Amino acid sequence: MSSTAVRRTLLYLALLAGALVSVAPYLMTLNASFKTTQGMFSTQAWTPAHPATFSNFSSLWSKYDMSGFMVHTLIVSVAITIGQVVFCSLSAYAFARMEFPGRDLLFWGFVATMMVPQIVTLVPLFFIMSKLELADTYRALILPYVFGTPYGIFLVRQYFRTIPPDLEAAARIDGAGTWTILWRIILPLSRPILATLATVTFVNSWNNLLWPLMITSSERTTVITVGISALQGQFASQFNIVLTAAAVALVPLIAVFLLFQRHIVRSIALTGLK
């Protein structure tokens, strides 16, 4: 076997090991959702459920408002995702294509706020929402994130800069305005990065715990992460119920990734080619 084949084999083995380490917790969570309480404590985490039971799912839906929590989370996540795709695209186009005084200084100053931990802004945000009488509402969950984030604007702006300026110049010669160029040229060419931004935003919104835990206090606005957190207290000794809830919460994230994975891979490939 040649040295190239040996290196390639070792590389694939390392990638396989990394994939197994990454996927193992999710497989164990799914496996645990089919175990009884006794089976959880009498077997190893990787031991297949035998016999498999669906009683955990029925108990979860009958004793706990899991469907309501998922609907709340879906509403918030979809609203934030749509808002970020729209506003990040507008901001990114301004920073990538338009000329105005202090553009680069403003952009890099805005991007620098990514270094500020989220915990620093939680208390001011809480007071702002309380003063506006928005606490425990969908608006309080959505407004802090819907108008874009430094990461999202940076991601889309860098992609916009890879689009040849000649396309925009040709469109302006044909009489196209800024909105026409953005809508009919830039955005159609940027579908891969917009799909990536939508996926990342949806996953982050779905998994967000700290802010919803602070700003909500009733079941009518409780999201899935807060619901599972409360579930850990209610079913502290029944880890199979808690892990069943975690497995249910994973389903929408897997569906979103499978839906947009082609665009995500394409965006990474195109960025790498640039």
TrEMBL record:
It is a multi-pass membrane protein. The keyword Ion transport does not apply. Its main location: membrane. Residues 70-260 form the ABC transmembrane type-1 domain. The keyword Cytoplasm does not apply. It holds the Pfam family BPD_transp_1. Keywords: Cell membrane, Membrane, Transmembrane, Transmembrane helix, Transport. CDD domains: TM_PBP2 (cd06261). It is found in: Cell membrane. The chain crosses the membrane at residues 9-28, 69-93, 105-129, 141-160, 181-203, 239-260. Belongs to the binding-protein-dependent transport system permease family. This is Carbohydrate ABC transporter permease. It comes from Streptacidiphilus cavernicola.
